[in-house]
Design goal:
The complex is a heterodimer.
Chain A: H1 2-8, H2 14-26, H3 28-45, H4 52-64, H5 76-88, H6 92-102, E1 132-133, H7 139-146, H8 150-155, H9 161-169
Helix pairs in contact in A: 2-3, 3-5, 7-9
Chain B: H1 2-22, H2 28-41, E1 44-52, E2 55-65, E3 71-77, E4 84-87, E5 91-96, E6 101-106, H3 117-126, E7 127-137, E8 140-149, E9 156-161, E10 168-174, E11 180-191, E12 212-218, E13 229-231, E14 239-247, E15 255-261, E16 266-273, E17 282-286, E18 289-296, E19 299-305, H4 309-317, E20 319-321
Parallel strand pairs in B: 6-12
Antiparallel strand pairs in B: 1-2, 1-11, 2-3, 3-4, 4-5, 5-6, 7-8, 8-9, 9-10, 10-11, 12-14, 13-20, 14-15, 15-16, 16-19, 17-18, 18-19
Classes of the chains: A mainly alpha, B alpha+beta.
């Protein structure tokens, strides 16, 4: 955990950076820490990238914590403890949404923290969900969508088979 | 009278083909325009194979333009459970004999022309468009047109168009790893033919009189609506095409429908009040279409489109409701 904050503060040398990044990529808990730390940094710096309600809630929660939050080396351990307790008590959905968004490739605001941060390689949200074949309940939406897709305009009626394909074909699988 | 009509139809068919033979397009975008016009103007009938996720479905497809006005299309699946789709100027009708259901979807009144000029600009910005060599599909020579995505936010495409008519004989979609994830290809095709209403009539027209009918429609067919929903972080290259309010069969509440497009691919976002049985967040796919469902502020969001899952999810995850002044 403290290695993560050292990583953020640019206090590791290159081979350590690579090692820590691998750890973070493979451990969802560490990924969560990574994002939380940057969230806090943003709020402290007053970055406008968060919705007001979210920032306010987090700020209010952090304000109640009894320590001064300064992302400096000596305070690294404290940040770990207090940031996590504040974050844990926030809505899980909000964080999941945030992680999913901030990890989306080419997200316009992927640059969450300035400073000596090595950008985390874009993690596609897909691994969070298994992408299963459709269960056939989407026909209405698909038909409504085909009307507007330029791809359909180029090909003609063919793509509409998607709308009837899953309805009963899925039964055979 | 019949003879005169037949001659008129022949001339109408011959004219575009002649014009095409004189000036074949030289660049990929011009080919895309020609292919889109062909899909609406050329009479044809054939057998088309839809390949996706290791499965194959074969269908009979016909398209006719009535010289007196009106476009008619019919597609009938040849394997698995019988299914039929009929599309006319005004509506799309799906006949599902197994469930004895007919679904009717009214079409949007603004039948936008072949490919809007802004679509073509969008395509060039987001894809590298290349004309390739000549291939052969359904016994016909065809010109290959490739669209290579400039980034990972969209899928690659590959079309093969019949040179004289411009009809799309084959269309493939490739994912980020350049694997084909969906393919439409004719195995047999007859271009031309006279318009005959019987050829585009549903075989279930009579039988379906007692079936359950589901109607879906736009509640404001003419003008785009301000639904109050906004996507705050659109994936690069995607622009909002329009937004509408609509109804779906079996659902009382109105549904907001936003459409985003990069010129070639489109992502639709449907927003409606949460149903009684709340859906869990999920990701699924149908061919090249990724479908993502999530909840936000007492609403259910269903986003789907022919784009990578990450793109569809980004659009849905950055949705916000901005209350409308005075509403």
């Amino acid at each position: 955990m403290d290695k993560i904050s050292e990583l953020m503060d640019g206090e590791l040398d290159e081979w350590q950076v690579h090692a820590q990044l691998s750890r973070v990529k493979q451990d969802e808990r560490l990924l969560g820490c990574w994002d939380t730390f940057h969230l806090i940094g943003d709020i402290i710096r007053g970055e406008p990238s968060l919705s007001k309600e979210f920032s306010d809630t987090l700020s209010a929660r952090l304000a109640k914590e009894p320590a001064v939050l300064v992302p400096r080396r000596t305070m690294a351990k404290r940040i770990t403890t207090y940031a996590l307790s504040a974050a844990a008590s926030l809505s899980a959905i909000a964080l999941v949404g945030w992680v999913a968004f901030s990890n989306a490739p080419h997200a316009p605001q992927a640059d969450l923290a300035k400073g000596p941060r090595t950008p985390l390689p874009a993690v596609a949200p897909a691994p969070q969900f298994a992408n299963a074949p459709s269960d056939g309940k989407m026909s209405d939406y698909l038909i409504a969508h085909e009307e507007f897709s330029p791809s359909t305009a180029i090909q003609g009626l063919g793509p509409y088979i998607r709308s009837v394909s899953s309805t009963q074909g899925a039964r055979d699988q | 009278m019949k003879r005169v009509c037949a001659i008129v139809v022949l001339l109408e068919f011959a004219a575009p083909a002649l014009a095409a033979a004189i000036v074949p397009p030289t660049d990929g975008l011009a080919w895309l325009k020609k292919m889109t016009s062909a899909s609406r103007q050329i009479n044809y009938s054939g057998t088309i194979v839809y390949h996706h996720g290791g499965r194959t479905e074969t269908s009979r497809i016909v398209h006719y333009v009535n010289p007196a006005g009106g476009e008619f299309e019919r597609m009938e699946t040849l394997d698995g459970p019988a299914r039929e789709v009929i599309r006319t100027n005004d509506q799309v009708i799906c006949y599902l004999p197994d469930t004895r259901t007919v679904t009717i979807e009214k079409r949007w009144k603004h039948r936008f022309p072949a490919l809007l000029p802004e679509n073509l600009t969008g395509i060039a910005d987001n894809y590298v468009v290349r004309t390739g060599g000549v291939d052969r599909v359904a016994g016909l020579d065809c010109q290959v047109i490739s669209l290579i995505p400039r980034d990972k936010l969209r899928y690659g495409r590959h079309f093969c168009a019949e040179p004289a008519s411009g009809l799309t004989l084959r269309a493939r979609t490739f994912n980020e790893k350049n694997e084909p994830i969906e393919s439409f290809a004719f195995t047999e095709l007859k271009i031309g033919g006279n318009f005959n209403r019987d050829k585009v009539r549903s075989r279930y027209a009579a039988k379906s009189r007692n079936w359950k009918v589901d109607h879906s429609a736009f509640s404001t067919a003419d003008t785009p609506t301000d639904t109050g929903w906004v996507v705050t972080h659109q994936p690069a290259g995607f622009k909002k095409f329009t937004e509408l309010t609509r109804s779906f069969a079996g659902r009382r509440a109105k549904v907001s429908h936003l459409i985003y497009s990069d010129g070639l691919a489109a992502v639709s976002v449907f927003i409606e009040p949460l149903p009684a049985i709340q859906p869990s967040q999920s990701l699924s796919h149908q061919g090249a279409v990724n479908i993502y469902v999530r909840s936000i502020a007492n609403h259910m969001v269903t986003a789907l489109g022919e784009a990578p899952a990450a793109t569809v999810m980004q659009i849905a995850n950055s949705l916000e409701f901005r209350s409308m002044a005075g509403k």
